[in-house]
Design goal:
The complex is a heterodimer of chains A (about 120) and B (about 120). Chain A has no helices and eleven strands. Chain A has strands at about 5, 10-15, 20-25, 30-40, 45-50, 55-60, 65-75, 75-80, 90-100, 105, 110-115. Chain B is built from no helices and twelve strands. Chain B has strands spanning about 5, 10-15, 20, 25, 30-40, 45-50, 55-60, 65-70, 75-80, 85-95, 105, 110-115. In chain B, the strands form three sheets. In chain B, strands 2, 5, 6, 10, 11 and 12 form a six-stranded mixed β-sheet that branches. In chain B, strands 3-9-8-7 form a four-stranded antiparallel β-sheet, with no helix packed on it. A two-stranded antiparallel ribbon of chain B has the order 1-4. Classes of the chains: A mainly beta (about 120), B mainly beta (about 120). Chains A and B meet through strand 5, strand 9 and strand 10 of A and strand 5 and strand 6 of B.
Chain lengths: ~120, ~120
């Protein structure tokens, strides 16, 4: 149990376009989902925390108008990178925590975004 | 403030040798502690977690870690390294209490190389 999927696994888009990444909890209800960004050979950087049905909480320095997060249901959160630029190219990873007070986060496989 | 320090960004061992990956944390309240493993272009997989029960925690793939409050450490060990253990390892802290929305604080990661 506790499987998290992400779609797409890889995406290439042109500069100026928008791209949406989906994060789904497949076999549990996720009250909280987290979005991370990871640069090559570096650790994960938390971008935002989202709770189902409410606005996401963004970390300092993360542009909320550029990285739109929606958590409309207990099994789905989306990250939309708007007006993407080459510097947005990165590995984006989501994670989810269960309803009911579990202490751990379950991570998705990640999405490799390349902006040309 | 929470912080996680992983000593050594790269660790190399021979196959069959002891693996020791170091992690120290700072937390104002008793934390929950995690070790994750990441293979190239994949998400994070939980190896083990400490949630205030036994201080010696056993995880998957023969890994274990010991929580030492006096040393604020949570080092990861494996008695005998296998080639398949080569990966990036992340230590993470979830502070105790309910004020941080369950977020994790990650160390910078340690790349483990296993030589034949």
């Amino acid at each position: 149990g506790a499987v998290v999927s992400q779609h797409p696994s890889r995406v290439i888009c042109k500069s100026g376009t928008s791209v949406k990444i989906e994060c789904r909890s497949l076999d549990f209800q996720a009250t909280t989902m987290f979005w991370y960004r990871q640069f090559p050979k570096q650790s994960l950087m938390l971008m935002a925390t989202s709770n189902e049905g409410s606005k996401a909480t963004y970390e300092q320095g993360v542009e909320k108008d550029k990285f739109l997060i929606n958590h409309a249901s207990l099994t789905l959160s989306t990250l939309t990178v708007t007006s993407a630029h080459p510097e947005d190219s990165s590995f984006y990873i989501c994670s989810a925590s269960r309803a009911g007070g579990s202490y751990e986060q379950y991570f998705g496989p990640g999405t490799r975004l390349t902006v040309t | 403030a929470q912080s996680v320090t992983q000593l050594g960004s790269h660790v190399s061992v021979s196959e069959g040798a002891l693996v020791l990956l170091r992690c120290n944390y700072s937390s104002s309240v008793p934390p929950y502690l995690f070790w994750y493993v990441q293979y190239p272009n994949q998400g994070l997989q939980l190896l083990l977690k400490y949630t205030s029960a036994a201080t010696l925690v056993k995880g998957i793939n023969g890994f274990e870690a010991e929580f030492k409050k006096s040393e604020t450490s949570f080092h990861l060990t494996k008695p005998s390294a296998h080639m398949s253990d080569a990966a990036e390892y992340f230590c993470a802290v979830r502070p105790g209490g309910g004020s941080t929305l369950g977020r994790l604080y990650f160390g910078r990661g340690t790349q483990l190389t296993v030589w034949p």
